[in-house]
Structure formats: C-alpha cells, structure tokens
Design a protein that fits this description.
The protein has 2 domains: 169 residues, 3-Layer(aba) Sandwich (Rossmann fold), CATH 3.40.50.300; 64 residues, no CATH class. With 263 residues, it is of the alpha/beta class. It contains 7 helices and 10 strands. A hairpin with a 6-residue loop joins strand 9 and strand 10. 32% of the residues lie in helices and 24% in strands. Helix 3 crosses helix 4.
Length: 263
C-alpha cells in the first residue's frame, strides 16, 4: 500500500459516534412499520465496529441515519458530541453496489466529490494518491464497464476516501463479490483502515467477515432491531479463520443469531 502524506495515528483522522435512544419507523400505505427500537451505542474514534443481524432488521437504516441521509423518529446520533442533522463529507457511505458513474473514467469517478465541492483544481494530487493506495493507478483512464467487481468496489472506496472522511460507513460492500475477491477486499479494507485511521462501521451478514475485521461486533435482533449482544474481538490483526478464539466467537455469534453452527 502507498500511504498518503499525512499523519494516520490511531483515531487522529476519526470521529466518535454516539447513538442515543434511537428509534425509527417508516410510513408505508398509511401503516407505521417500526425498524429500530431504542438503539444505544458508542463508537470510539478510530474503532472498527461490525453490525450483524437478520436481513431487513434495520442495519442499513442505521447507517443512513449515521450518514445524515435521514433523521431518526426518536433519539439522536452525535458526531463528536454534535447532533448529526444532515450529510457531510466527514461521514461517507459505501454501498454493496459500486454505483460508479458509467460515463466517467476511474480517475474522474474518484475525483467527483472534490469536483462537486469546487476544490479539484487544488486537490488533483489526492486522486492520484488514492488510486495508488488502492492499486488502480494503471486503470485511471478505464471506464466502469471495463472493471471487475472487486476493482469497481475499490474505486468506490477510493471515491469515498478522497474526501478524507472521518467515519466510513460500509453497507455490505463485498456482498456481491466472489469468495476469492471478497477475501482480498477484506484485506484491502483492513489495510486502508490502519493506514488512514478513520472510524469504520460495517454492516455484514458474514459472521467470519465481522470477526476478521472488527474490534467489536454488535448483534441486532429481528425488526424492530434492538441490540442483543456486544462482542469484543481482541485478537490482533491479521487474524486467521482457524484461530481457536475466533472459532469459539463464531459459534457464540451464530447461537446469538439463532443459527445452528453445522460446521
């Protein structure tokens, strides 16, 4: 990995996220559907936290609230003690689909945020640095349709990081990748987190992915989601799937999720 020319001490380029008594509901066809129920969670600057839970329980909704894309029905989310009221470049969300602009090259996709903020003329070097960081400098002139799924997702992550976010929100970013590419991307993400020092909040359905990456795993119940477990993961990185402690934590998490561990 090529490091950007800035200090990346743990938590220096990060925010603390406080989720205080957050509940949220959707109105559909005149009916109210509760999604989140009194969520309380504190994430320290520079911490890597994973969210696990049943499909549709509200994990992605919680990310959208943290990004400022929606406001909670009750409670508050705070960035370093300040209420999150709207989107901000300090908090960026990476989706399962890369959602690149198909008419723009890789370089211009990564530069899009800087361009929208009117600072691209002075920050072009950052685009080049990020492309080197994710090892795609040779594909700067390529278009999205010319990329593999893993490459496209690296572009999406670079596009987020070029804005120097202090909180990176990841909504199953590797969910549609093949197994081998997913393993490589997990390693890439971990390296980026260590290099940049941002706070990371990852939504995943993959228990092993959560255990390999996160320092703490939060387990949510079925909708409306409540926190049913908080599991610290103290093993140093890089972690091995066959590590006895991780195997035990995997069994514990699967049991918490109500899934029999058949392996």
């Amino acid at each position: 990995m090529v490091a950007l020319k800035q200090s990346t001490a743990r938590g220096l380029n990060a925010i603390g996220l406080a989720i205080e008594h957050v509940s949220h509901s959707f109105e559909i066809g005149g009916e109210t559907y509760p999604v989140l129920d009194d969520i309380n969670l504190n994430i320290a600057p520079g911490e890597f936290v994973a969210l696990l839970g049943p499909s549709g329980c509200g994990k992605s909704t919680l990310l959208r609230l943290a990004a400022g894309l929606e406001k909670p029905s009750a409670g508050a989310l705070l960035e370093d003690g300040v209420t999150i009221a709207q989107p901000d470049p300090t908090r960026l969300l990476v989706f399962q689909d890369a959602t690149l602009f198909p008419w723009l090259t890789v370089w211009k996709n990564v530069a899009a945020g800087l361009d929208a903020r009117g600072v691209l003329a002075h920050e072009k070097h950052r685009v080049d640095q990020l492309l080197r960081l994710v090892r795609l400098e040779e594909f700067a002139g390529a278009y999205p349709h010319q990329l593999s799924g893993g490459m496209a997702q690296r572009v999406a992550i670079a596009r987020a990081l070029v804005n120097d976010p202090r909180l990176l929100l990841l909504d199953e970013p590797f969910g549609k990748l093949d197994s081998l590419t997913r393993l490589k991307m997990q390693t890439e993400l971990l390296s980026l987190w260590k290099d940049r020092g941002f706070t990371a909040l990852l939504v995943t359905h993959d228990v092993e992915e959560a255990l390999l990456l996160a320092e703490r795993v939060i387990v949510l119940s079925d909708r409306p989601a409540r926190i049913v477990a908080e599991v610290p993961v103290s093993q140093p990185h890089p972690r091995r799937r066959d590590n006895a402690d991780l195997v035990a934590l995997r069994s514990h998490l699967l049991a918490t999720l109500g899934i029999a561990d058949a392996v």
